Every structure is written in structure tokens, then in C-alpha cells.
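Can't paste images in this forum, so I'm doing it all in text. The chain is below; anyone willing to post the predicted C-alpha cells underneath?
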Amino acid sequence: MKQHITRAVAATLICAAYSLYFIYLVKSADLKYLIYIDFLIMLCVAADLAYHALKYLKRKSEIKSLLQTDDIIFTELGEFENGDITEHDVFVLQRRLQCQYDDSLELQDYVAKWCHELKLPLSASLIMNEKQKDTQLRASMREQLERMKRQTDMLLQGCRLQSPILDLDIKVTRLSECIKTSIKNNQFFLIQKNFTIDVGAGVKSDDDTLVYTDAGWLVYILDQFISNAVKYSDKPEPYIKIWTENADKNSSGETNSNGVMSSNDVTSSNGMTRNNSVINSDGETGSNGVTGSKRGKININSREITLYIEDNGEGISDSDMRHIFEKGYTGANRRNAKYKSTGMGLYMAAKTANALDSEIGVESVKGEYARFSVKLEKCSADVIH
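Text version of the structure:
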């Protein structure tokens, strides 16, 4: 646009110089013809300038629209100044990113292999520790070995989750089996802290509640919830309650006439207000992609079932509620140093739920309870495996 303005100014100056030449040096010239010619020239210059100004504004509007997308846009702009330089630089950056991406994959493969190699000596150490005659030492060693085993399993699952090709096996799964497996994975710490497990309707061993999901990854999500319950237990009689509800019912068991379940602030039976934080199937809340407190209504269908896991630990504060699914967020735990939290557990659980096309959410009253939920697609009991 600057070039067109420069050319218009140059044309105007030339026209002015030409007119002054005729006015002062050509005495016999008829000025009306000079004025007519100047008018035509200036009209052409103005028309050319207006055309390119409109073209410039239109292009700016297109660029502004393209900047709202997440794609590479220089290929959509056609020819532009220094376009070949831009294309070269983008190609170089893509090549460098690809090299870094390949290095990251190699590191993930190495860590996953390392986890597999570590599992065997860990299992052997657990067996050898049982032969320890000193009961107090045996219990202390068992705790540390169990922690190492759990963290190794979590690291291995984290590597698999970061893989560009996520190994999913979505099939009909018995929900009670997933609950049983997750409790077994955490049984040492549950027993150590004297947890009471209250398994309700839909998830008991004799129930036939079937869902479409990947059993291994669902267990991974449940492990995160149960391990958090163990970590943040501060009551003399800790408990974990597990139950299911059909998604076409609200929290009080009443069916909504419009087929949706409210996620507004709900008043609990003791008169306190519960704070809700919900992740949708894309793993996002709001337009910025950051999970957080979501209010309003969630559209659901009658084939969905919601699995709840509630503990009576210290709960989650209002200030932390909207951030607990963010990567690396530790909240008050970072400041008071009471718990050694990495801020990765719930983030990975949310990412796993997104891969499974599920929703996870949390309700909590500080000092009372924390209740996590997972929405799953339910299937009828007469499905043939």
C-alpha cells in the first residue's frame, strides 16, 4: 500500500510541475485545456489509489480472519512480498520441529522400555521383602516398594498416553471389573490407612453394568481418583464410596423433563453449596482450552451412565477448583508443602478421558468431601462379548 501511495504522490508532483511549466513558460497556452488534463490525471490517480486501498483493507480483513485459525496461513495468502523467504523459513522450522518430535518419541520409547525393565526387579524385591523377619522393617520396605511400583506404572501409562498412536481397545466392558482392578492396584495403601470401601449399585461384583470403553485406560483414570483420595485423607475413619447413576437423572434421582442434567451449583443435604468443575468430551472448558468451573447445562443422551467416586478427605478449595485439571497445577499444596503433589495426575486423567471420548468432573465442599465422576456410554446387558 505504501508503494501505491508513493506512486500517487509522485504522479501528483509531476502533474503539478507540468502545469507550472505551462502557466509560467508557455504564455500562449489555453489554461482550460490544462485544467481539464490535470483533472483527468488526478481522477485516474484517485481511482487507482481508492482501488488499491479497498484491496488492501479486504486483504487485511482476510488476514485477520485467518489469524483466528490454528493452521499455517501463508499458503492461503497467495503471492506476497518476501513470500519465498517466508516459505523457506517455515520449511526449516518444520524440519527442526520434526527432529525434536522424533527425539521426544525416542525418549518416550526409552523411558517405556526402562519401566518394563524395572518391573521385574521391583516384583522380585516385593517377594524377597516378604521373607524379612523384622515386621516393622518389612512394612516400611513394602510401602516404599509399592510406591515405586505405582509410580513406575503411572510413568509407563503416561508414556503411552503421549504416544502419537494411542493404543485403544474400545469394547464392551464390565464396569465392576474395572472398579475391582483399580481397588486392587491401590489395596496396600487403602489397607494401610484403614479405608472403608462402600461399593454401591451398578458396580458390585454381581452387577452386570456394561459400558463401551477401554478397560485399561478407564482403570488408569480410576487409579488417579483413588490415589488422590488416599493422599488427601485427613479423617480418622476415611472412606471411599463408589456408585453409578443413569445420566438421564439429576443428582436427586429425579428425571429432567428436557433430558439434560444441570451442572449449576447444587445445594447438598447439609445446606452447603457444591462447586462443580466439568470437562467436556474435547477436554476443554470454554474457548481458551483451559479446564475449569463450568456452569449451565450439559446435553446428554439416555445411553450414558455416570460413575461416581467420593471420599471424605480434605476436599478442594474454591480457588483451586477451576484449575485442578490444568497441567502442573498444585494449588495450595505447593504453598503449604503438606503434600508432595506434581499436578500431573488429574491432568493426565483428563487427557485420557478426552481420548476415550468421555467426560470427567468433580464436585467438592472444602473439609467435607470430594466427588469425582466419569460419564460413560452404557450398553444393554444382552450384548454378546
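The longest strand covers residues 369-379. The radius of gyration is 33 Å.
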